[in-house]
Amino acid sequence: MRSRAPRILVAGAVLALVLAGCGSKGTQNPTSTGDTVNLGASMSLSGSLEKEGKLTQQGYDYCVSTVNAKGGIPVGGRSLRLHIDYQDDQSQPDTAGQLVDQFNDKGYKLILGPYGSATTGAAMAVVERNGQVMVDSSGADDTLFNRGYRRTFAVLSPASVYAASIVDAVNELATPKPRSIVFLSADDGFSKTVAAAGEARAKSLGLTVLPGQQFPAGATDVSSALTRIKSGKPEVIVGSVHLAEGIAIIKQAAELAVTPTGGFAETVAPPTPDFVTTLGTKANGVLSSSQWVPEVKGSDALFGTATDYRNGFRTQFGQDPEYHNAEATAACLAMVLAVRNAGSTDPGKVRDALARLDEQSFFGALKFNDRGENVTKSMSVVQIQNGKLVTVWPADQAAGRLIWPGTNG
Amino acid sequence: MSRSAVAWALGAAVVVAGMVLLPSQLYTGQVRVVTAVLMFVALAQAWNIIGGFTGYACFGQVAFFGIGGYATAVLMEHANWSFWAALPVSALGCAAFATLIGLPLLRLRGHYFAIATLGVAEGMREVVTNLGWLTGGGAGITVPTVGGRGTAWLGNDGFYLLFLTLAGLAVGVATLIARSRFGYGLRAINQDEDAAAAAGVNTTRAKVLALTISAAITALVGSAYAFQQVTIYPQRLFDVDITVIMIVMVVIGGAGTVLGPIVGAVGLQFVSEYLRQHYPQEHILVLGAVIILVVLLFPSGLTGVAGRTGLLDAIWAYRL
Amino acid sequence: MTSFLQATSYGLLQGGLLAMIAIGFSLVWGVMNVINLSHGAYVLLGAYIAWELHAAWGLDPLLGAVAAGLVMFGAGYAVQRSLINQVVNAPIFLTLLLTFGLQLVLVQGMAVVFSADYRSIATWYASESLPIGDVRVPSGRLLAFGVAILATVVLVTFMRRTRTGLAILATGMDRNAARLMGINARHAYALTAGIAAALAGAAGALVGLVGTFSPPDAARFTLLSFVISVLGGLGNMYGALLGGLVLGVVQAWAGQYLPGTWVNAVAFAVLVAVLIVRPSGLAGRAFYEARVEAT
Questions:
Q1: Domain residue spans in chain B?
Q2: Pick from B16-25, B274-283, C157-166: least confident
Q3: Is the four-CA dihedral B55, B56, B59, B63 of positive or negative sign?
Q4: Which of A67, A230, B175, B181 has a 20 to 30 Å separation from A4 between CA atoms?
Q5: Interface-testing mutation among B235, B238, B259, with chain A (most A C-beta atoms within 10 A)
């Protein structure tokens, strides 16, 4: 010990000095190298949000292949190819923040958002600090946009619309009109915001809102929440959830014979294909809100209409896109349009171009308010009918009629 | 001063100087990587005090990390404290908490202590999640850093220095303990608790003190982490993976030594960072394989191999 | 009253399945003093095996559980023989580290091979339920519960009544003495690991029957096994069963009478309280509590 320790210390000191001496600050690989625009994306490629992260990545990838197939992004008389550099944030917010800093080191000033509200929040703070620009594809929690950040723009509708749009649709379309409703919510920030806004909407429409229940996010056993609401006989049960809890509600409601006379509605979970594949016929009749459906009006030069988008995506991946895919593609599209409009990859100019952006697309309107939220676009309401998602609301997008009560299907 | 003491002082001075100057040579993202390494050096060293020296596998160490972080966030957000006041108070509060739970829990041995502390950590996460009015619940809490409230964010270089200081503190405390009578008492407990008691070590006092010191350092790190992250969530602040990583680092480096946790933390953090950057899709798979190989090839820890135990001896010693 | 009975029955059924998940973990821990952090991954592997068999040939998950058990027996045996036996004499942390690495490889491997999709094995009976008065007893869970109890009884009988079982128990109590009696300790340990993996795999098939699974669930299953093993106590074959049932019922009651998000907090409070009052678990033996390191 006595003879060995100083040598190790000296070795450490030498190492530290070598490290200190050989780094050198400067710019490497700037956002546009030669004829390529490099975007950085911190993504949940592993960890608890891996599934959703992969869907987001598919949406980004589809954007890249489409943009490059159409000749790239016209910038100042040249055409730049698009490239996205993915790094795995393991679904952890702190890692996502660190990765955005590392992108900054590489000179990547233009960032596409990670999956989820917590990771997006962490990335937003770093983007702001470094003078980068981010387009957010999935962080919907309204509180993210109350923090005064000016360099993040979200293409999707905020959390407060998720359940409220379902309440609107049921109120408008269902006969007989339900009188009572109950909200079951996971306890993460996003889900709680969704449930609170949904309850407020239901109250303002004159529905009786029964006492809601919460369970831990990611719970696979929600039986006690169901037993507790059973006696109140709610006509509509709304789950403000993610996939795991959403599947558990339908599965366990069947086991416990909790059958509302109106129907079930859930946010986020039903549009994911896994919802139907795991629940089979029990999924039929469940309502959900969706950031995007193939009936969305509007089109753009890159992806065409929403139907074109679906067909093209299907050709490339062999499956229909769901809204996580579409919102990712839309975020990438907003970035591409802003770079084109700015005629530059300079982050300041791209940021201003995003703030001014006002375009129609396969995803609907892309236009941001001064907090960076896309409030022009609405959410659609879908129902699972015979194992397929059918758009039922709003009227101008409806591809089928609402089946009510939904629990008879 | 003896020659070896001079060598120590010189070596230490050069290390400190090199580490302080390091960020001026790095990109911000690289600074952040090194900052994370320093954070884990401090955490691993803190765990080493209770887990390595004393031999009590605290599987709930992340509870202290989370309590430190949340105490700081709550004091800054609700009581308008500055970070510099919240930092030591969080650590003291957490130390008191550790003393309180240590008294009943440290009577348990082996895995039972491990699982009881794990229960405490998981339970604390649930409590923090459920006290939404105070902690923001699952939606997280944001430390005030702008608009004249709270303390201005320190910047990447500032946090580098903060975590460097904490890592230095953890290593310093561990070194002092390793060379003190108290430290010999802890090692005696690790070897054979009954024999240590028979030899006159006040085992209860020593164990509780070790846990308290370990918890205080962990809480300091958690506090600084909360300030660095700005917004914190119970899922992450009480993430059992953080405990597991601390243990993995200590065991890879060599438990119960001062150098081991440093080597383990630096090595594991750099390897996993390298893998993540170069193999974004498969890095965890590769990391798992690396850990398996390290265990099979260096069963007594990397520092243990460098020491008196021959590589082959160690491999054969643990075989069935 | 109805809701109390409903919660209690549901909790008991859930607890039986939890017990089956944990029993192999408890066995390995009791016999070898190894905490197998890859146990949850074994459960998931079993679930994927049953899922694939159901998808390919429509094999019912109850039969799939048998197949998953057999495959996982081989896997558990091989892993023990080739990897864990190499360091089984080392301090407990080292086996912990090894199985942690194994867990990373298995979970990430499953994500690569099977994707991160949420899966469930759909059967016609899983979501049906038997009405008993006003209480609903879900038939899928009832079947899973029955299999779990049966597996526990078979395991205990095997351990106590067969030469092989007694050899394993003897090795667990004193390896050197067992060796002197002519027991091949390497083989005995590998058999133990194989049995544990088989039970985990079969339990995984049942998880697929009554619920959903995806690779990140592995850590949750391991954590549950850890809690249940300690709650029940080591050294008693029925310990894990008791621990599982207690945990299931406590969670169901907490969910019924407290805000839903407190469920986990209550479960862990009960765990810590049990440990403080009865350090060797509800049904454990003091010998295992005092044993810190294998010799």
A1: 28-239
A2: B16-25
A3: negative
A4: B181
A5: B235
**Tens of pLDDT, residues C208-225:** 999 899 998 998 899 899
CB A98, CB A130: distance < 8 Å: no
Please answer whether residues B230 and B76 qualify as being in contact, where contact means their C-beta atoms are separated by less than 8 angstroms. no
Q: Does C82 touch chain B (CB under 8 A)?
A: no
**Of the candidates C61, C15, C30, the residue with the CA atom closest to the CA atom of residue C284:** C30
B120 and C272: CB-CB below 8 Å?
A: yes
C86 touches chain A (CB under 8 A): no
Q: What is the dihedral of CA B168, B174, B175, B180, to 10 degrees?
A: 150
E strand or H helix that includes residue C126? none
Write out C192-259 in H/E/C secondary structure: HHHHHHHHHHHHHHHHHHHCCECHHHHHHHHHHHHHHHHHHCCCCCCHHHHHHHHHHHHHHHHHHHCC
**Residues 184-243, chain C, touching A (beta carbon < 8 A):** 211-212, 214-217
Alpha-carbon gap, residue A59 to A61, rounded angstroms: 5
Round to whole Å and give the CA distance between B175 and B8. 13
Structure tokens at C239: 């310990």
CA distance A186 to chain B (A): 9
Structural domain boundaries of chain C? 2-116+135-290
Q: What Å distances lie between residue A309 and A17, A165, A273, B62, CA to CA? A: 54, 24, 18, 46
C contact chains, 3+ CB pairs < 8 A:
A, B
How far, in Å, are A38, C8, C63 from residue C51 at the CA level? 41, 30, 11
B279 has a chain C CB within 8 A of its CB: no
What is d(CA B180, CA B174) in angstroms, rounded to the nearest whole number? 10
The answer to whether B72 and B226 are in contact (CB under 8 A) is: yes
CB spacing of C103 vs B288 below 8 angstroms: yes
Average pLDDT score over residue span C88-107: 86
**Nearest CA to CA, how far is B103 from chain C (Å)?**
10
CA distance to A44, A307, C220, C248, per residue, from C19 (Å): 32, 50, 14, 9
Q: Which residues of chain B lie closer than 8 angstroms to A5, CB-CB?
A: 8, 259
- Find out whether B94 and B46 touch, Cβ atoms under 8 Å: no
Residue type, position C19, single letter: A
- Please report which confidence band the pLDDT of residue C107 belongs to, taking 50, 70 and 90 as the band edges: very high
Q: Tell which phi-psi region holds residue A81, choosing left (phi > 0), alpha (psi between -120 and 50) or beta.
A: beta
Task: Give the tokens for residue B289.
Answer: 């394989």
How far is residue B16 CA from its own chain's centroid? 20
Alpha helices in chain B (DSSP H): 3-21, 28-47, 62-78, 83-105, 110-130, 132-135, 155-179, 181-191, 193-198, 203-229, 234-237, 240-253, 259-278, 283-297, 302-306, 311-317
Residues of chain C found within 8 Å of residue B130, distances taken between Cβ atoms = 259, 261-262, 265
Backbone angles phi, psi at B240, to 5 degrees: -60, -25
State which H helix or E strand residue A290 sits in.
strand A287-290
Residue A10: per-residue pLDDT: 52
The rounded radius of gyration (Å) of the Cα atoms in chain C is 19
Given a contact cutoff of 8 angstroms between Cβ atoms, the answer to whether A252 and A222 are in contact is yes
Listed by number, the residues of chain B in 28-87 with a beta carbon closer than 8 Å to a beta carbon of chain C are 51, 55, 57
Total Cβ atoms within 10 A of residue C287: 11
Q: What is the dihedral of CA C41, C46, C48, C49, to 10 degrees?
A: 140
- Report the alpha-carbon distance of residue B108 to residue B120 in Å, rounded: 14
ipTM, two decimals: 0.86
User: Amino acid identity of A391?
Assistant: T
pLDDT in tens, B170-218: 999 999 999 999 999 999 999 889 999 999 899 999 999 999 999 999 9
Domain annotation for chain A: domains and CATH numbers: 32-156+295-367 (3.40.50.2300), 161-290+380-408 (3.40.50.2300)
The residue type found at A403 is I
